[in-house]
Amino acid sequence: MDSFNDVMDAVKAYCKGRVSDASYRVFIQDLNLLNFEGTNIIILEVPNDVVMRFAAARYADLLKEAFASILGFEVELKFVLAAPAPDGGKAAEKPKLDENDLPSGRYEFTFENFIKGPSNQFAFAAAQAVAANPSGAYNPLFIYGPSGLGKTHLLNAIKIEIQKNHPDFNIVYVDCEKFTNETITAIKTATMEQFRQRYRKADVLLIDDIQFLAGKESTQEEFFHTFNTLHNDGRQIVIASDRPAKEIKSLEERLRTRFEWGLTADIQPPDFETRVAIVKRKAELLNLDLPNDVAEYIANHLKQNIRQLEGAVKKLNAYYLLEGIEPCIGVTTTAIKDTLNDSQPIPVTIEKILNEVARTYNVMPSDIRGKKRNANVSAARQMTMYIIREVTGMSMEAIGQEFQRDHSTVVYSIKTMEENIKRDQHLKEMCSDIMKNVRT
Ligand SMILES: Nc1ncnc2c1ncn2[C@@H]1O[C@H](COP(=O)(O)OP(=O)(O)OP(=O)(O)O)[C@@H](O)[C@H]1O
């Protein structure tokens, strides 16, 4: 080491593997070793005030550790702001930061990171019991509740816990859309055997968003056999759904009863105290200092979805890091307004409807748009047009343009569907399930 630059390069290399690429690029890459003072004080030059605040607050410990490891003695750090370059050059520029550059605050979906309250403690306890004793406690465990309340979190927590205690276990986690797509591909490419082996060899199967099984007959058939094989062999199955099994209308009875064999646990929106605790925990995980009144303000305004609570905390963190604005009620009002706007019901797109109907009828979305006339594709096309009309309220003309069909064809298709639905209970349920699924 013969120069400040060498030392600094080594320090940066030390830090590089220990922080995310984005954080390294924004907060560490441009640090400059300016001088030594006394015996152990290092003066670090930072390019601007954002990096100054961030590097000093978050990375001082890591940087000290790096210097100690490279120089062999403990150091203290002093950060100084680089003087603006006379030509207004690089040193004077603020980095172009956006939220993607910020540490994401990603944390593991563990039991430890799950905040309990009256609305979720039963599901939490059931998940813990299953994780502690796979196949011994409740099989299957069926967790249901509205979006954004922690079902996926619990499924992952079970996975992590079992992995820790049984490193040799083959744990398969899949969401139902993926399972459905894989079933369709396996049928089309004649690779059913490999597909079956993958799922039927699981020691633990965790399947998320099972409501998407609704109406998909071949996937239900496949899942039925997977379920039976695993259950008969004493393997643990955990299922998450946005509604109870009995409300998934076009689900075969034999599956519905199986889902109810074990334990069913629901999750409801959290009460005020739990929401405050969640907001505080999320802030803590981001190292954000959040006053109580702000945490309570957020909890008072966002009640239905924990993802929204997280969104608000992340926004406040971004304001703080990017603009230096401390969290307070005033800025929270803006952050919450954004979150509320962001979380307006997502407009249902035609593509979403098309994909969901295609999966249900086991055809390709392009077939529905295309000219094929076989019975299954025609039925799928009629269903698609009907649901687009119901869900989006698009005019018949616009639907016609979308499918390159004339207006009278659309009118006829929708009318036929309306009549069929009146007569055919199964079709009616299938249609209602598809509509629910495209709205989630
Ligand atoms: N009790 C809780 N404690 C801490 N974080 C929670 C809790 N419940 C939910 N979360 C967080 O809220 C976010 C949304 O949760 P999750 O994805 O598990 O919801 P979900 O019920 O599976 O929703 P969806 O049905 O939309 O998939 C996650 O980041 C999760 O960690």
UniProtKB/TrEMBL annotation:
The keyword DNA-binding applies. GO terms for biological process: DNA replication initiation; regulation of DNA replication. One of its GO terms (molecular function) is DNA replication origin binding. The keyword rRNA processing does not apply. GO terms for cellular component: cytoplasm; plasma membrane. Pfam families: Bac_DnaA (PF00308), Bac_DnaA_C (PF08299). Coiled coil: none annotated. Keywords: ATP-binding, Cytoplasm, DNA replication, DNA-binding, Lipid-binding, Nucleotide-binding. Its main location: cytoplasm. ATP binds at residues 148, 150-152. It is found in: Cytoplasm. It comes from the Bacteria. CDD domains: AAA, Bac_DnaA_C. Residues 349-417 form the Chromosomal replication initiator DnaA C-terminal domain. Residues 1-83 are annotated as: Domain I, interacts with DnaA modulators. Residues 321-440 are annotated as: Domain IV, binds dsDNA. Residues 137-266 form the AAA+ ATPase domain. InterPro entries: AAA+_ATPase, Chromosome_initiator_DnaA, Chromosome_initiator_DnaA-like, DnaA_C, DnaA_dom, DnaA_N_sf, P-loop_NTPase, Trp_repressor/repl_initiator. Oligomerizes as a right-handed, spiral filament on DNA at oriC. Domain I is involved in oligomerization and binding regulators, domain II is flexibile and of varying length in different bacteria, domain III forms the AAA+ region, while domain IV binds dsDNA. Belongs to the DnaA family. Plays an essential role in the initiation and regulation of chromosomal replication. ATP-DnaA binds to the origin of replication (oriC) to initiate formation of the DNA replication initiation complex once per cell cycle. Binds the DnaA box (a 9 base pair repeat at the origin) and separates the double-stranded (ds)DNA. Forms a right-handed helical filament on oriC DNA; dsDNA binds to the exterior of the filament while single-stranded (ss)DNA is stabiized in the filament's interior. This is Chromosomal replication initiator protein DnaA. It comes from Gemmiger formicilis.
